[in-house]
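Please fill in the sequence for the structure shown.

STRUCTURE ENCODING:
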């Protein structure tokens, strides 16, 4: 079971590393595959909620950013907590921006949370791709944990086709 989950993750992740852009669907599938591997490792300590509306799955986004935010939520938020917790991925359209957030209910901001290299790299990539229209915001959650929110110019199809 673990080998299958890990193989699914690697098959999904490795080809994307060289791409300039991906889609929200692909990045969500990659995050789900990563979380499946971690669920096998963490068991009942990891709960996952993913809420990505079908109208947004075709939105373009840079590859591997969502996976990095999920990894940070686990590593810095849930892994240090004996009871684990929940990771929540939510996407929504906000005007002409796509917002994708990764939240956890873990330990929250800590002095020794890490070097911040992953987040700095994400911010740098967003700035080079989108200028001021690409942002990463971090916020403490009231119930504990942190939510990281990406804001990108939206390329999603926001109208629904009518079936004949």
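FILLED IN BY: designer on duty
SEQUENCE:
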């Amino acid at each position: 079971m673990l080998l299958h989950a890990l193989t699914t993750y690697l098959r999904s992740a490795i080809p994307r590393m060289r791409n300039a852009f991906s889609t929200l669907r692909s990045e969500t599938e990659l995050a789900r595959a990563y979380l499946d591997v971690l669920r096998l490792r963490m068991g009942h300590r990891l709960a996952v909620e993913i809420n990505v509306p079908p109208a947004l799955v075709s939105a373009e986004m840079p590859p591997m950013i969502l996976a990095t935010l999920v990894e940070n939520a686990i590593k810095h938020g849930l892994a240090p907590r004996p009871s684990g917790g929940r990771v929540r991925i939510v996407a929504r359209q906000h005007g002409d921006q796509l917002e994708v957030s990764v939240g956890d209910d873990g330990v929250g901001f800590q002095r020794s949370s890490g070097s911040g290299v992953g987040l700095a790299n994400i911010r740098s990539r967003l700035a080079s791709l989108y200028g001021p229209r690409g942002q990463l915001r971090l916020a403490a959650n009231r119930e504990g944990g942190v939510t990281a929110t990406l804001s990108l110019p939206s390329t999603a199809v926001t109208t629904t086709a009518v079936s004949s």
